[in-house]
């Protein structure tokens, strides 16, 4: 259906098109409605949009520029017009166009050979609101354009600019672009390739199957480098292709102190309890395992009536002690009480959590026997949740003991925490409120965290398995004569080496 021009003038005459509903701050008709339902042309819609200037129809701009991008290639004169209006909104509106409109405008400009105008708009956007964190989606089309056009030095300078103004770095968007950047640089500029690889390492980006397909097709022509895909097992003890062992990224003493200070601050008061006050002697060649009590006790137990399994924890304690290691257990203090609240954690699968039903259990004689025995051996540590989340106790204990070892010049990691908890909430808090980088937290986890699972025989728990951290870090690695890129999920790698 064609948009009837006459009805436009009628609407204008009645002041309907320009009318802004102050209450809802919506322009009628909405740009989306015009384009999608009324099938108005871009030119007709633009004629309406450009009249909406006091205030500007910012939401309408998002839709309009998006539809323009979908309709490319556009007439050069029309691109000039819509760019001029975009500039007006950018200069005159208090906030300027949203990231959605920016992303479309920047893509249209780069496609029509006006990358310099896109750069100017983006710089102006940041100058105008320097306190607002820039969103990567506005910058992505220009970075991708430079890479595709093989203007790699410009791409690198632009990337440094994006970083310097604190732009968001959504891994699923930034990662694939940097992978294509690295593949373009590999054949032409090895120093630049190393720089890009370094960014991928800092982001701890792992390649998706799409990235791998792109990499393999893009690097086929690079005569002096070959890429080989290798399974996890083929990387141990060294890469089967290039004979280089993968590297494990360390955590320095200063970084441990930083982690320790951050967790201390996260607790309302100091948690200097038994873990730090009386660190027990670790026999030569052995380790100190700190067990995340609830995480182990709730293994496979998150269902209605699922119990807190003191016996799992106890079985694991005995298993580890039998190997000559030292064990501590962090446990919320209320589990030491007669009656305790039973935590039901899996909200998605468990309707009882959603309805807010609370379960309580009364300690049995067996439970009391476990607790009394742990207390007698002073291996249980009461985490007082009114002070801090019990996770913070084992985090603190681990950092404390690791830092103490590091200061004593002990290089091997003698302290492990046994937990499957990814501590996602704490990572957000450490990163955003305490300036601890995610990379550092991941390096610490890669060093100290031991996974745990139950081994069943005839549907009964026969043993508890520990899963040691990997001997290498799953990050992009530069070995000088070869490079390695981790692939997500499969555990496999790309090895880039000379044939
Ligand atoms: Zn290799």
UniProtKB/TrEMBL annotation:
Pfam families: PPR_long. InterPro entries: PROP1-like_PPR_dom, TPR-like_helical_dom_sf. Residues 91-164 form the PROP1-like PPR domain. It comes from the Eukaryota. GO terms for biological process: tRNA 5'-leader removal. Keywords: Repeat. GO terms for molecular function: ribonuclease P activity. PANTHER family: MITOCHONDRIAL RIBONUCLEASE P CATALYTIC SUBUNIT, PTHR13547. This is PROP1-like PPR domain-containing protein. It comes from Achlya hypogyna.
């Amino acid at each position: 259906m064609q948009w009837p021009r006459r009805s436009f003038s009628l609407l204008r005459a009645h002041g309907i098109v320009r009318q802004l509903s102050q209450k809802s701050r919506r322009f009628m008709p909405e740009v989306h409605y015009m384009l999608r339902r009324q099938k108005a042309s871009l030119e007709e819609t633009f004629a309406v949009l450009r009249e909406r200037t006091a205030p500007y129809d910012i939401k309408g701009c998002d839709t309009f520029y998006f539809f323009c991008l979908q309709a490319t290639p556009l007439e050069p004169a029309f691109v000039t017009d819509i760019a001029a209006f975009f500039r007006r909104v950018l200069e005159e509106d208090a906030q300027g166009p949203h990231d959605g409109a920016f992303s479309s405008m920047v893509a249209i400009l780069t496609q029509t050979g006006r990358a310099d105008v896109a750069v100017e708009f983006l710089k102006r956007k940041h100058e105008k609101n320097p306190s607002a964190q820039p969103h990567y989606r506005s910058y992505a089309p220009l970075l991708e354009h430079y890479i595709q056009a093989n203007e790699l030095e410009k791409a690198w300078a632009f990337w440094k600019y994006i970083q310097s103004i604190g732009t968001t770095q959504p891994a699923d968007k930034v990662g694939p672009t940097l992978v294509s950047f690295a593949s373009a640089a590999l054949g032409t500029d090895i120093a630049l390739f190393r720089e890009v690889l370094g960014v991928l390492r800092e982001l701890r980006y792992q390649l998706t199957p799409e990235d791998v397909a792109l990499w393999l097709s893009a690097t086929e022509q690079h005569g002096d480098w070959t890429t080989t895909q290798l399974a996890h097992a083929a990387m141990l003890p060294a890469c089967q292709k290039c004979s280089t062992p993968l590297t494990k990224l360390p955590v320095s003493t200063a970084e441990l102190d930083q982690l320790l200070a951050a967790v201390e601050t996260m607790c309302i008061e100091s948690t200097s309890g038994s873990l730090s006050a009386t660190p027990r002697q670790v026999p030569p060649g052995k380790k100190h395992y700190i067990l995340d009590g609830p995480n182990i006790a709730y293994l496979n137990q998150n269902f209605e009536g699922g119990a807190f399994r003191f016996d799992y924890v106890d079985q694991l304690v005995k298993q580890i002690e039998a190997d000559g290691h030292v064990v501590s257990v962090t446990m919320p203090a209320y589990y030491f009480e007669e009656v305790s609240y039973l935590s039901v954690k899996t909200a998605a699968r468990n309707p009882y959590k959603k309805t807010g039903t609370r379960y309580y259990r009364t300690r049995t004689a067996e439970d009391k026997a476990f607790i009394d025995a742990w207390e007698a051996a002073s291996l249980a540590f009461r985490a007082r949740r009114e002070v801090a989340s019990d996770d913070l106790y084992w985090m603190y204990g681990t950092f404390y003991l690791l830092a103490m070892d590091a200061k004593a010049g002990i290089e091997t990691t003698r302290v492990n925490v046994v937990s499957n908890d990814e501590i996602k909430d704490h990572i957000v808090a450490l990163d955003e409120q305490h300036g601890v980088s995610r990379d550092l937290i991941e390096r610490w986890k890669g060093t100290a965290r031991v996974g745990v699972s139950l081994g069943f025989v005839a549907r009964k728990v026969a043993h508890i398995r520990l899963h040691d951290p990997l001997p290498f870090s799953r990050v992009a690695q530069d070995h000088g004569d070869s490079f390695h890129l981790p692939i997500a999920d499969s555990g496999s790698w790309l090895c880039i080496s000379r044939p």
